[in-house]
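Let us begin with a simple case.
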Amino acid sequence: MTAVTEDLKALTDADLFDRLSAAIQAIPPYSEADQETRERAWEEVRRYHDELARRYQPGGAPTSAD
């Protein structure tokens, strides 16, 4: 998992889902970008995903913000 930063902890769930959706849509097609550009785009997706995973762990209630 990527490191969760304070800026993500302050976002609402709706904001996280909006940003995750936008980050997914911003991933460039493989043929149109170099590997480094694609990896940076995927890193944004991972950041939002990991924060949601931290909040909503499988099999349990949402965790409180630290």
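The second case is a distinct protein. As before, the sequence precedes its structure tokens.
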Amino acid sequence: MIDRLRQIIRDVPDFPKPGIVFKDITTLLAEPETFKRAIDLLAERYSDKGIDKVIGVESRGFIFGPAVAYLIGAGFVPVRKPGKLPAETISIEYELEYGTDTLEMHRDALKPGEKVIIIDDLIATGGTAAAVAEMVGNLGAELVEMAFLIELTFLEPRKKLEGLPVFTIIKF
């Protein structure tokens, strides 16, 4: 099944800018059996880990995170770009390959000691994941693992995540 998941993900050259080959998961999402299997692979991994909250990173983490949270009986916490969450937030600015970005989470989204996982569709350089992990720590929650459908190994994301638990299903 992992080979099928790998095959169905479409490469889109020169998106969002020249020289980048975008890994498009919409083809996987459109096929019910592969979409279901991708969610099941993630949920099976965490079904007996006592996870309290699943964190999904805007925007494709909002596709996988709530489905996994539902299946394992956990809450869901969205991490968003600035100005999108209505209550008091904490924020973190982090470095990208070409500039900086900021993410926010509701200040009351996590309680100290809660067991959480971070889910997103893809990990490239690791900067976003590292920033979200830092917010989890700042709120006193326990990061059990970060899970991704796709890892772009040639960008060496685990260098930025050294010492942090990372799981990926498909490596390119």
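The chain has a mean pLDDT of 96. Helices lie at 2-8, 26-30, 32-46, 61-72, 127-138.
Keep these points in mind for the review questions at the end of the chapter.
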